[in-house]
Design goal:
There is one protein chain. About 10% of the residues lie in helices and about 65% in strands. With about 220 residues, it is mainly beta. It has one domain: Beta Barrel (Porin). It is elongated. Strand 3 and strand 4 form a beta hairpin.
Length: about 220
């Protein structure tokens, strides 16, 4: 509850305190999740075994945002969206399973600051860093049996914590299309800093990908 109160207060201040009107936009971020499970130092034996099983998978996030310009060099944005992080297990043939994938699905609230550099007002390179609050929805498990073309799907609430936290870093370019519209493209990395579960094996998704943001001033 404290996390949601913090975000609500931030968004209220974001909307009311600045002098100029915010810009609004939408974003789509395809990404590749290279890792979810990470054993701690007391479970190194499990880490070695799991590294043989787990492989990365494709995910994405999509949503809307409001962005406020604080100066010619600095802006901040806050958004609301949906995200998914995938995990594949490819070594379950002994159990008769050909493919096994888990998608962790969240409602996300990203809070991001961007710093612009360069003098070209139509193509503005920038660096950004921020924080994302993730509210767990469910996880979707899909699998198929060896010799079968049919994919089975199950959706579970599981033992994943209701709220988790991540940090985000990116480098990109803001392309100004006209007086009202611009498009941002960036390469980003997203790292969870709190485990999805409370058990001995930490689950800290790491994903990298490409973000496209369409913004109306």
């Amino acid at each position: 509850m404290k996390n949601y109160i913090f975000v609500f207060l931030f968004l209220t201040a974001f909307a009311s305190n600045a002098q100029n009107k915010p810009a609004f936009g939408v974003y789509y971020n395809p990404s590749f999740t290279s890792r979810i499970t990470q054993a701690n130092s007391d479970l190194n034996w499990l880490k070695k075994e799991w590294d043989k099983l787990e492989s990365g998978s494709v995910g994405y996030s999509v949503g809307a945002f409001a962005e406020r310009t604080l100066s010619s060099k600095l802006s901040v944005r806050a958004g609301l969206g949906f995200s998914t992080f995938g995990e594949r297990v490819d070594s379950l043939s002994d159990l008769g399973i050909d493919k096994y994938k888990t998608d962790y699905r969240f409602i996300e609230v990203p809070l991001v600051a961007s710093y612009y550099f360069g003098e070209n007002k139509y193509r503005r390179p920038y660096l950004s860093a921020g924080y994302t609050l993730n509210g767990f929805m469910n996880k979707r498990i899909s699998y198929s049996m060896i010799g079968s073309n049919r994919e089975e799907t199950t959706v579970l609430k599981s033992d994943v914590k209701a709220v988790s936290h991540a940090v985000r870093f990116a480098i990109g370019v803001d392309f100004v299309l006209d007086k009202k519209w611009s498009v941002k493209t960036e390469i980003f990395a997203n790292q969870f800093v709190s485990s999805l579960t409370n058990d001995g094996v930490r689950r800290l998704p790491f994903a990298a990908g490409l973000s496209v943001q369409l913004r109306k001033k």
